[in-house]
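Provenance

Sequences were taken from public entries as deposited. Structures were produced by running a predictor on each sequence independently, with no templates supplied. The record for GDSL esterase/lipase from Gossypium darwinii is shown for reference.
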Amino acid sequence: MAIKVFSFFFFVYLLVEMHEISAMVPAVIVFGDSTVDPGNNNQISTVLKSNFAPYGRDYFGGQPTGRFSNGRIATDFISEAYGIKPAIPAYLDPKFDIRDFATGVSFASAGTGYDKATSDVLSVIPFWKEMVYYKEFQDKLRGYLGNDIANHHLSESLHLISIGTNDFLENYYPFPTRSSEYPVDKYEIFLIGIANNFIRELYNLGARKIAISGLPPMGCLPLERTTNIMHGSACIEEYNDVAKDFNQKLQDSVTELNRELGGIQLVMSNPYYKLLEMIQNPILFGFENVATACCGTGYFEMSYMCDRMNPFTCSDANKYIFWDSFHPTEKANFILADHAFKTTLTVFR
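Predicted structure for GDSL esterase/lipase:
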């Protein structure tokens, strides 16, 4: 009798658990650049890597993983907030397989952009290739879960896209090719056209829950401030204005796609104002330094220039918004992820 009672309550417990799991996002699937790359660049031939100390010094076990931070990145915290897992693996990392990827995977590549010309600058994975990997992942998932379950799983999973800054700061402004071809507002439209096609393809492949991130105040990144030394290393407002204009165009596009694609839940997450608030009011968030980064001198170091041999790296990254000259610290990543989870992403909870 006791066994039967136990079995009954265990069955009820399983039903409750299954209901709760089915009501939540079962996986976070990620596309984009270094803001969300957990280590795919480790497996390709590029100079843009971060799989060495002091990167990762505050990650689990103090291990450098290829994340461009001292610890976790925003998508790791979003996955944890949904109760899935505390870190999202890189698709190309041979330590993981479909059992790991089923609950979250990132196809992102540091240094890439919407524009294929951007990925060519540092020989990283182009945005279109991330879609190729996603299709390959879908095939593996269907082999693992079965066709019907996999299709449902994909439709309920949150697909996150975080990309675009490199298109301007590594491509459009430093090199004359695109800037001679497009005025900046037309280049924004060109990039958003690529984003729209990517989202449509995700939709055609069964994705229904999609969040796309806008641009940050990219003129305030330490590397950009360093180039603005003639103006007191202030933020480059021209770049910030471009980011705001791009974000408005992207939001308009998201509105149109929600009308066009039946059954889609597409949202835009905008990091611009939250990051700007952190930069303008650092004390409110416990930061002490906003203009320079923790790693090295904080003015220009990134990737191999930010290594264990650099004697200037700070001892406490929690006092800094930026870890290297381009990327946030783990603490800043948490604040940005928490803000997105409690605002834009609530529709998926």
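The first strand starts at residue 28 and ends at 32.
The chain is about 45% helix and 5% strand.
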